[in-house]
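Case study.
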Amino acid sequence: MSHATVLIVEDDKTLREALCDTLELSGYTVASAVDGKSALKVLENKSVGLVVSDVQMQPMDGHELLARIKSRYPTLPVLMMTAFGNIEKAVSAMRQGATDYLAKPFEPSLLIEKVKQCIQHAEPVDDQVIADDLRTRELVNLAGRVAKSQATVCIGGESGTGKEVFARYIHRQSNCADGPFVAINCAAIPDNMLEAMLFGYEKGAYTGAYNSAPGKFEQAQEGTLLLDEVSEMSLPLQAKLLRVLQEKEVERLGGRKVIPLNVRILATTNRNLREEVAAGRFREDLFYRLSVFPLHLPPLRERPRDILPLAQFLLRRICQSQQIAEPQLSQAAEQKLLDHKWPGNVRELDNVMQRGLILCDGSEISPDSLCFEMDMPVPQAPSKEIAEGASKGCLSEDLRSVEEKMILDALSNDRTSRKEVAERLGISQRTLRYKIARLRDAGVAIPG
Ligand SMILES: Nc1ncnc2c1ncn2[C@@H]1O[C@H](COP(=O)(O)OP(=O)(O)OP(=O)(O)O)[C@@H](O)[C@H]1O
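After joint prediction, the assembly is written out as follows.
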């Protein structure tokens, strides 16, 4: 049985109670509301997996509620209940994005059947795309439209803006949604390994290849392959990638068989790819092949109406995963979130909500519980303490700032790739990526 809460929106008290009873007896957790306005309030405070709503209600009717839900929670399924014989209302609700409809009066068994179907097809909470700001809503809309084509989409935007969230959304909305979604982070894997992981290899292709293995392209057959941080790929590998994209076929390393591919390609990048092309770090032909349809996600500070819905969504997600009650955000806390500039975007907001949850009193998150990393004091301890901290195996704040300075110095050389920076610092590219993300979350501008 699904754990998702079903929200019943119906102004007729007797019918509302009957619907709630029917679903509760079938094992669902149920919440209820008397009209669209109060339903939106419930949605703000509760994680809901499905809305079952009447059409005719006052003051906010089912159509308006549906429109608000589609703009604010685009992936939340809605089952509309229409008056018997009013097929036009049902058709217009379906056009507006309702998942299904029930014509009144209906048997309890039909309600249970439809609810079950809608919940089965519903997005898990992790897959939801929050889009309240007009700019984000337009992007979701665009992403939904481009999803239906076979076009290669390159999603750009600062770190933590939700590029992977959008890539997954495009996959779910595409004609290959039933196929696999395979993602590979091109920045986190050393070049020779990345090649083997992308294209696969035959037994004996290189030392240590004891068995043959399919690559990510093959794993993504009939589905979507996301090339995350594609700009970090080396030039020689870019050439090989281009060939696979042009030919729509792949050969495993050390293999002779040509494997035809039917894979939708998506890519993301934190960098301005045009600038990378101009600087000679990214192949122009690959740029054009990947950017058939470019989508750019603006930073969170440029879509302020997303901040609070995202904060609430993230809070709910954290509370659900930790199975704890969800505290309210006080009005002053909301204002503090709205006033911040979010250099680390949604990922930074996620961190702030996690910390807020730890620091709050359980029922309410106040402004004091919301601390941004850039506001946290860095103690100026004498160097003796650095050594002591290091010998205890913990990284003191001073050591951390020395480390940060080394990373920033290394990154400030324009001609050095991230891969070379990682090598020079003696850390893996994955570790470097993690440390850069932490610095970004703390509001530090990253060179390059
Ligand atoms: N619109 C959104 N709705 C819901 N969650 C979001 C949204 N945007 C971002 N997130 C959340 O923010 C976090 C960062 O998102 P994501 O990994 O997609 O960002 P990114 O741009 O791909 O980051 P990076 O460039 O560092 O890889 C994730 O936890 C994701 O679930």
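Observations recorded in class. The chain has four domains: 5-122, 134-296, 302-375, 383-441. The radius of gyration is 25 Å. We will return to this complex in the next lecture.
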